[in-house]
């Protein structure tokens, strides 16, 4: 039979080490789960915004089933229809449009150079409202 050579002050150290290790593992598990949820929500939001941008761009190209003619171009009406299409896509992806700050930019908008100079810099040089299909959602 083996004698225990530990003093009374050393007894119980295993329990303390195990408690600290289990606590650290629980904290790490919590961070891992939170990171996975954050990544999942980011991916879902990115997919919804991409779908909204595509829906808005399609609304730019097509109006009532026909390709929009330059003579019937109305920037305000078009922006409203594009925003409506983008919001519809956000709703379809389970997002509340009221909680999302949606900005729609169209090259050819006269105030674009002062409102969003970064986006305006990416627009082609000679712009008429119908000559560009570049649409941006922010």
Determine the mean pLDDT.
79
**Which shape, going by the Cα principal axes?**
rod-shaped
pLDDT under 50 segments (min length 5)? 128-133
The secondary-structure element order is: HEEHEHHE
- Sequence of strands across the biggest β-sheet: 1-2
Give the beta-strand count: 4
Beginning-to-end CA distance, first to last residue: 76 Å
The Cα radius of gyration reads 29 Å
Q: What proportion of the residues is helical, as a percent range?
A: 55-70%
Total of DSSP H or I helical runs spanning 4+ residues: 4
| Beta-strand content bin | 5-15%
Give the structural class: mainly alpha
User: How would you characterize the largest beta sheet?
Assistant: 2 strands, antiparallel
Comma- or semicolon-separated keywords:
mainly alpha; 138 residues; rod-shaped; 4 helices; two-stranded antiparallel sheet; single chain; two-stranded antiparallel ribbon; 55% helix
Please explain how this structure is put together.
The chain is mainly α and 138 residues long. The protein has a domain at 48-137. The chain is built from four helices and four strands. A two-stranded antiparallel ribbon has the order 1-2. A two-stranded antiparallel sheet has the order 3-4. β1 (62-63) and β2 (66-67) form a beta hairpin. α1 runs antiparallel to α2 (75-92). It is rod-shaped and about 95 Å long. Residues 128-133 have low confidence and may be disordered.
Give the gist of this structure.
55% of the residues lie in helices and 7% in strands.
Compile the SSE list and pairings.
Blueprint: H1 13-61, E1 62-63, E2 66-67, H2 75-92, E3 104-106, H3 112-115, H4 117-121, E4 135-137
Antiparallel strand pairs: 1-2, 3-4
Helix pairs in contact: 1-2
